[in-house]
Amino acid sequence: MESNQQLFNKNFIIIGVASFLMFFSFYILMPIIAMYVIEEFGASASVAGVVTSAYIITSLLARPFSGYLVDKYDRKKFYLLSFTLFTSLFLGYILASSILMVFITRVLLGAMFSMVTTSSSTLAIDVMPSKRRAEGIGYYGATTVLAMAVGPMTGLYLMDIFSYDILFKIAMASCILGVGIAMFIKTKPRPKAIHEPFSLDRFYLKSATSIALVVALLYFMYGSLMVYISLYVKECNIDINAGSFFLFLAVGIIISRVFSGKYLNKGMHSTILQIGIISIIFASTMFIFFLNPITFPISSLLIGIGFGCATPSIQSMIIDLVPANKRGTANSTYFIALDLGSGIGMLLGGVIAEHFSYKAIYIIALILAVIALLVYNLYSHKDYQKKYAIAKRSID
């Protein structure tokens, strides 16, 4: 579906903007949902963690099917349908009168979040030139991860100005705008899907398991940062605007995409991935043990650079394991690992904080990041190279 070797073609820009608006609508509420249920309904920290992370359960359950459906049906139509349903579910926040209603809304949003993110990322890969795919995945990921950074920062800022109800309406309006923009995407007809024998690989890419494990270990940190950063800063009793974390995170992500793109195009996925993990480990150490007004922006920036390097590297590696007609499955596998890691970080974070401290959450996250580096170097890298060699022969 690529028209030429121009990466920033019209379709790529449209889907990037639409995805930014979708992710922004979701993540603007991420850091305030916990505070919302605590302040409005008197929930405990552990209950707030369960409600906030509730979407992960259905997202994980829906991921394998979302990849299969994206590969089976017209990707644009499926994307627009899932995006529209996702948007309509924001009414659940606006109409919620109990914790149960908020919980149900999060659960339903999780399923549709899975569908829309899998279809949008697969569609983006379809419209980018194959020779610049790794670079393209990096830039497309920058639009979504940028929203994941700017959204929470904006939510924390607006929470001091507007009511929760207004914030929910702002999030829904962003989604509506995203759907409107997405309608202008133009794609070429895909060859009729071939009905292959039923197998687990149509729902989950088994050959990517070892590299997906690295994603899951790393994203425990990301999930816990999304939800508990403001509470952690308050616990540390340091005069810092917690929302600025997301600004520096976003800047770090952008910096990483600028310098890493050309190296990813040259196939240096492993090097960029390891740079990313090491950056996360170094920055997290600073963030946990040496936090002050000076180290806070530095560590936030380096965490952004770390995730900005690691994310497109791993996603590109997984995509390279499959032919074009299985990109949906490959993307869903990547997102399963991401959801699993971040979801556990969100869910267990509240429990850990309630029994120990918010600092303890990030100490565990740091340990998992170190384990991720060891797992990759001792096992995942060699396993992936073997699986990639097999896949390349079958694709060629």
Structural features, described:
The chain has 396 residues and is mainly alpha-helical. The chain has one domain (10-184, 203-395): Growth Hormone, Chain: A (Up-down Bundle), CATH 1.20.1250.20. It contains 14 helices and no strands. The two termini are 19 Å apart.
List keywords for this structure.
Growth Hormone, Chain: A; about 400 residues; mainly alpha; 14 helices
What is the strand and helix layout of this fold?
Layout: H1 10-27, H2 30-41, H3 45-72, H4 75-88, H5 91-95, H6 99-126, H7 133-159, H8 164-182, H9 209-236, H10 244-265, H11 269-289, H12 295-319, H13 327-355, H14 358-395
Radius of gyration: 20 Å
CATH architecture name:
Up-down Bundle
Shape: globular
Nearest-integer average pLDDT: 82
Q: Helical percent range?
A: over 70%
Query: What is the strand content?
Result: under 5%
